[in-house]
Design a protein that fits this description.
By secondary structure, the chain is of the alpha+beta class. About 20% of the residues lie in helices and about 30% in strands. It has a 16-stranded antiparallel barrel with strand order 1-2-3-4-5-6-7-8-9-10-11-14-15-16-17-18. It is elongated and about 125 Å long. The two termini are about 50 Å apart. About 35% of the residues are buried. Pfam families: OprB, SLH. InterPro entries: Carb-sel_porin_OprB, Cell_Envelope_Struct_Comp, Por_som-like, SLH_dom. Keywords: Coiled coil, Signal.
Length: about 600
């Protein structure tokens, strides 16, 4: 053993071995004289022979040593690892006894001899496995070189990159007996021409589209998140991008601003904790449904977008833009039920400085203010949400009649007596209630997910039509009081509803595979302002099975059916429907 190792071990061993001295009260005078002679003559071998007679192999052999003694563990380690601890002939240890310097040196030497034996054994093993150790040493050197290279070339020590790419191959069959455009008054041209034969001509081809996301996750403290997403796709001219009916849009179907294949900044926000129970969010581009206190459903199809909105597209409308949010979650033990509340304001037009077209907290910001409160347990959750939605922000997914936004451009107050008709912009109050439950273990019983939504629209006195009276500088506009909207006018909508039910099975046939189905009525008008009965009913279904090929690759065949996606814009007494089929492949990296 090297000298410096002996120097380091000496004070430790002296402290631990000092109780090993033989007391004059425990041995005879002749034995004491014999031991002293060994020490004085430095006869280590003779002392070792005496010591061997009193050597112990277990700390339990000492009758006076207890587990509560402060040096119990240290003493136990010396006995079991090195076997260099001896006791008195009567089976005691006498941990409080003193010892001479000769005795300490001899006992320390005994322990060092045992350590040297262990070292020699290690040397023998190292020589025996020299080749294997050389291989391992080379691998470690290679790993160190690679780590050094990665550290030298990485673009950030605080940012992680996550990505996924989705391929969609599919087509649609357009059915129904509507053979000509809808001739009714007030039907927009696009909706009037969305009948089966025309749809087959314009959207009946089999398509191959993609949606790519690159997510940059940056944390400065380990608890915060600066989230940046780059996204591209080519669904701009695809039926799965929501054409000719918005209900055909898939959840993963990105149509970049600027055209297909253009890379857009899709998300940019900063999320951080405030104390133990609160979380805040601020960002130039965030989404209200990604800052909810409680995720309403367990259902995860990622096929039709309408079934990612929890039965209430008007409330959970995926509004995206400049965002401010605050969330509170009750701090409880993991697995215990908790209460939570969140609120977020989103302004899609916050970058526009014209107060008639955008800005923050203005009447024409197209803003959405979403507040959610709920309670959730390990395998169930219940939530209630309210959204205040301004004009220009649509109801996300519904019939062609019910889905569009309440218009901002139709609002006018530049006529004589306009103060009697109101000057505030239009808006809607939207409500949602959801409940979800999933079994503790996978099996034949699926998760059950329920959602219902209600939307109430408010407009200033139906924006009365006006007529110009007079000529030149003295001309004024006066209301004609022809304010009753026609049956199919957007301004005729007073209220709408929606609902959905989703069922999902996990570990179907093989672990990791999933299957599901959902049915519901996307947003449809239930009340018209002119007093007539709406004809806007519709249904949507989807069925899918997800093959989890690897941890990073999945393949999902799916079918969906839309019974009356044009809603009230379908010619009265006739029908128009869609049956779609697709295969969606996802790669995560």
């Amino acid at each position: 053993m090297k000298p410096f190792q002996q120097v380091l071990l000496a004070p430790v061993a002296l402290g631990l071995l000092s109780p090993l001295a033989v007391s004059a009260g425990e041995i005879s005078p002749s034995q004491r004289a014999e031991i002293s002679t060994y020490m004085e003559q430095q006869n280590i071998d003779s002392f070792k022979a005496w010591e061997a007679q009193n050597q112990v192999t277990s700390i339990n052999q000492f009758s006076d040593v207890k587990p509560t003694d402060w040096a119990f563990q240290a003493l136990s380690n010396l006995i079991e690892r090195y076997g260099c601890v001896a006791g008195y002939p009567n089976g005691t240890y006498k941990g409080g006894q003193a010892m001479t310097r000769y005795e300490a040196a001899a006992l320390l030497n005994a322990c060092l001899d045992r350590i040297t034996e262990v070292t020699d054994e290690l040397k023998r093993l190292m020589e025996e496995f020299e080749k294997e150790l050389a291989v391992l040493r080379g691998r470690v050197d290679g790993l160190e070189a690679k780590v050094g290279e990665l550290e030298a070339t990485q673009f950030s020590t605080t940012t992680k990159l996550q990505g996924d790419a989705v391929f969609v191959i599919g087509s649609n069959s357009f059915g129904g007996n509507q053979g000509l455009p809808n001739p009714a008054v007030g039907v927009p041209a696009g909706a009037a021409n969305a009948f089966p034969a025309n749809n087959r001509r314009n959207w009946g081809a089999t398509v191959f589209n993609y949606d790519l996301r690159l997510n940059f996750l940056t944390s400065f403290t380990g608890k915060d998140l600066l989230y940046t997403r780059l996204r591209s796709g080519n669904f701009n001219n695809s039926p799965f991008g929501g054409q000719p009916y918005n209900l055909m849009a898939l959840d993963r179907a990105f149509s970049p601003a600027g055209g297909a294949d253009v890379v857009n900044i899709d998300r940019l926000y900063y999320r951080f904790p405030i104390g133990r129970d609160f979380t805040a969010l601020i960002g130039a581009k965030a989404r209200n449904t990604e800052f909810l206190a409680i995720t309403p459903w367990f259902y995860r199809s990622e096929i039709l977008d309408v079934f990612t909105l929890h039965g209430a597209p008007g409330t959970y409308n995926k509004a995206t833009g400049a965002t401010f949010g605050l969330m509170w979650k009750q701090n409880v033990k993991k697995g215990k039920p908790f209460f939570a509340i969140s609120t977020a304001y989103v302004a899609p037009n916050a970058d526009n400085g014209n107060p008639n077209q955008g800005g923050l907290l203005g009447e024409r910001s197209r803003g959405t203010w979403t507040t959610q409160a709920g309670v959730a347990g390990k395998n169930w959750r219940f939530a209630f949400a309210w959204s205040y939605v301004q004009c220009g922000q649509n109801f996300r997914r519904g019939t062609s009649f019910a889905q569009p936004a309440v218009g901002c451009t139709s609002i006018t107050n530049n006529f004589l007596g306009s103060e009697n008709f109101g000057t505030n912009a239009s808006y809607s109050n939207n409500f949602a209630t959801t409940f979800a439950w999933q079994p503790t273990k996978s099996g034949w019983i699926p998760s059950i997910n329920l959602g219902w939504g209600y939307n109430a629209m408010t407009q200033p006195e139906l924006n009365p039509q006006t007529a110009l009276i007079g000529r030149g500088a003295t001309a004024v506009r006066v209301p004609t009081f022809n304010t009753v909207p026609t049956f199919n006018q957007s301004a005729n909508r007073g209220a709408s509803q929606s609902w959905s039910v989703g069922l999902q099975w996990n570990d179907v046939f093989m672990k990791g595979n999933q299957a599901g189905m959902a049915v519901g009525q996307p947003v449809f008008a239930t009340s018209l302002r002119n007093g007539e009965t709406p004809q806007d009913g519709n249904f949507a279904w989807e069925w899918w099975y997800k093959f989890q090929v690897t941890d990073n690759i999945s393949v999902t065949p799916a079918l969906f059916y839309l019974s009356r996606p044009n809603g009230q814009f379908t010619t009265i007494g006739q029908s128009s429907s869609v049956l779609g089929g697709l295969i969606q492949t996802q790669f995560k990296f």
